[in-house]
Amino acid sequence: MAKTALKDLVDRLRPDDNFGPVAFDDQAQVVAPAGPLTDKDAVKSAIAGLRPGGSTNLSPGYLRGLQEAERVAADAGATVLLISDGHANCGVTDPEILGEKADEAFHRGFQLLHDPSVNLSFSHLLS
């Protein structure tokens, strides 16, 4: 379901929109470097090739996503979309620390979006 939603999102974005998916399980991996969506088919193919991993190391995935966003962000900042089961079960799992990272990013102009039905144990710290 997540891959379908991401591919649908790619279809809706303009070629000059910056987009850069980062996948994470026990480590983070850049699926497609952040930048203009000049080759939507290549990005959708990379997304289609993703396979589920065994754990959720949320911190490096989120931080790598922020790095990709910062690399291409304009003065207006950027939005980081987090798609996860929301259960950080390895690496940094402390909700306070994850919330601090999100708050720091917010103050640098980065907005974190996530599905509100996903249990992000630190989401209450983002308001």
Structural descriptors:
globular; alpha+beta; two-stranded antiparallel sheet; two-stranded antiparallel ribbon; 127 residues; single chain
Strand line-up of the largest beta sheet? 1-4
The value of Rg in angstroms is 14 Å
Helix content: 25-40%
> From N to C, what is the helix and strand string?
HEEEEHHEHE
> What spatial form do the alpha-carbon principal axes imply?
globular
User: What percent of residues are in strands?
Assistant: 15-25%
Give the rounded overall mean pLDDT.
Answer: 83
> How would a textbook summarize the main sheet?
2 strands, antiparallel
Identify low-pLDDT runs. Answer: none
How would you characterize this protein structure?
- The protein is an alpha+beta fold and 127 residues long.
- Helices cover 38% and strands 16% of the residues.
- It has helices at residues 2-12, 40-48, 58-72, 95-107; strands at 18-19, 22-24, 28-30, 35-36, 78-82, 110-114.
- A two-stranded antiparallel ribbon has the order 1-4. A two-stranded antiparallel sheet has the order 2-3. Strands 5-6 form a two-stranded parallel ribbon.
- Strand 5, helix 4 and strand 6 form a beta-alpha-beta unit.
- Helix 1 packs antiparallel against helix 2 (40-48).
- The longest helix has 15 residues, at 58-72.
- The protein is globular and about 35 Å long.
- The mean pLDDT is 83.
Brief rundown of the structure:
The protein has 4 helices and 6 strands; from the N terminus they run H-E-E-E-E-H-H-E-H-E.
